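Sync notes, pocket subgroup
Present: LS, DG
LS reminded everyone that the earlier model was apo-only. Rerun requested with MRU included. Inputs:
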Amino acid sequence: MRVDGRPTRTIWLEPDHESVGIIDQTRLPHAFATCRLASLADAANAISTMQVRGAPLIGATAAFGMWLAMRDDPSDEGVARARSRLLATRPTAVNLRWALDRVAAALARCPEPARADAALACAGQIVEEDVTINRCIGEAALPLISRIAERRDSGPVNVLTHCNAGWLATVDWGTATAPIYMAHDAGIAVHVWVDETRPRNQGAGLTAWELANHGVPHTVIVDSAAGHYMSRGEVDLVLTGVDRATATGDICNKIGTYQKALAAKDTGVPFYAALPSPTIDWTIRDAMTEIPIEERGAEEVTRLTGRLDDGTVATISITPPGTRAANPAFDVTPARLLAGLVTERGIAQASEQGLLALFPERQDTGDQEGAT
Ligand code: MRU
């Protein structure tokens, strides 16, 4: 997508082929800053501090992290150490494990001196595939928006989204946002309700920034307003991302997704989750017990960071000193609440049969890892 008119991705190999460039998402929306990852430690740190975030981008960064690690230690122990260090950065999005498994499988076929190049080639493939996958997701979900627009006499199609499943969460396009950008570019009037997405405000800070950059009309709302707008008929469609889906079609996504799905079900608003196939964990069937939910620091709930009127960025406390706060970062939305799963191969019914109809090669592979 474009930043100030310039085509920009979230991650790239620097021209000197010595390091990896990223957008530092902890600085957005107040500053657009990039930084370089030059070591395994840099890559692991970028994921755990959420300079990069979003399931697909976490996976791509980890793949590059394997390359950076292989330059220093391409031994079998080096591969295992790098893999486990990167795997420990964030627990919920399965794209991380998927990418690491894919790079590790490529490295297992290589003599040590060739491993850095092999890891870089694999990271490059993951990056390019992610762009293609997201474009296909956009094309698959575009008719959901255009059909509503065709039925409509006037006014935009109102799409509600949660968190940031936009291009900042992927390499390019985004998953939930890809059809929105495509609709907008095709001249369809779209308006996006952007959940602010407490506590880290990925909606207010990142999705709003993306949509503004692309000129897509949008309105930020507090998380608790979504049901209100749905009940008044002011939401036509809910589109979110996914951090991990089970083989049975349940999804785990940013905390608050479940509540949107409940409200959507009650009000008859179709709720679609968009996900690239590397987000499907074919090894699990029970999202409630088998997906680790990341528990993040209490200060994300008790404190808020924002820009003051004088332009400086500051963090303030919003609770009495010493207040206890819980901060689960993700929740599970059962398949029964979903109208469908948008994948790069089309829209699947949110069920095991639905997923297998699109990914027949996954039949009877439930005991294998979800890679490649
Ligand atoms: O904690 P984050 O910001 O990494 O969470 C991101 C999300 O929950 C996204 O919806 C998900 O990763 C899908 S991104 C295409």
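DG: The mean pLDDT is 97.
LS: The chain has twelve helices and 18 strands.
Action: DG to write up.
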